[in-house]
Amino acid sequence: MKKFVFVLAAMLVLSLTNVMANKTSVEVKAPEEAKKGTEITITINVSHSANSGMHHTDWVYLKINDVEVKRWEYSKDSLPPDADFTLEFKYTIPADVDTEKGLNIEAEGHCNIHGSAGPAAAAIKVT
């Protein structure tokens, strides 16, 4: 009987954990327009309901024109700073960038248990 009660209690805790848990989500902020050769700051706001050794954001990436330019990795021994945190990346717009296409920014974060809420994107018009 004690084993049954323990299993039932464990199932209840696990089901409540899944209800309260969320996937890592991100928001990208970048200037709408910039000139070739200038340095811009891309800001990524990361949100996740928990960051503990057992349940945390384990990575966030940043891509510019489909090329990964930065990846932040976290582990149980090196956790993100908080449940909601901000990352910044400085980028100098190359002189040879195609002004017709501009810059397409994409970022995504991932929870080690629940996965990702999906990528976020921004576009920069280059002059």
Sequence-ordered SSE layout with sheet pairings:
Layout: H1 2-20, E1 25-29, E2 33-34, E3 39-47, E4 57-64, E5 67-73, E6 84-92, E7 103-111, E8 120-126
Parallel strand pairs: 2-8
Antiparallel strand pairs: 1-3, 3-6, 4-5, 4-7, 7-8
Features:
single chain, 127 residues, mainly beta, three-stranded antiparallel beta sheet
State the gist of this model.
With 127 residues, this protein is mostly beta strands.
- Regions with little confidence, pLDDT below 50 for 5+ residues: 15-20
**How many strands in all?**
8
Task: State the helix count.
Answer: 1
Main sheet attributes: strand count, strand direction, barrel closure: 5 strands, mixed
Spatial order of the strands in the main sheet?
A: 2-8-7-4-5
Shape: elongated
Secondary structure: helix percent: 10-25%
Assess the beta-strand content as a share of residues. 35-45%
Secondary structural class: mainly beta
Question: What sequence of helices (H) and strands (E) makes up the elements?
Answer: HEEEEEEEE
Kindly provide the radius of gyration, computed on alpha-carbon positions and rounded to a whole number of angstroms: 19 Å
Terminal Cα span: 73 Å
Global mean pLDDT: 89
Q: What does it look like?
A:
The protein has 127 residues and is mainly beta. It has 1 helix and 8 strands. The protein has one helix spanning 2-20, and strands at residues 25-29, 33-34, 39-47, 57-64, 67-73, 84-92, 103-111, 120-126. The strands form 2 sheets. A 5-stranded mixed β-sheet has the order 2-8-7-4-5, with no helix packed on it. Strands 1-3-6 form a 3-stranded antiparallel β-sheet, with no helix packed on it. β4 (57-64) and β5 form a beta hairpin. It is elongated and about 70 Å long. It starts with a helix and ends with a strand. Mean pLDDT is 89; it is low at 15-20.
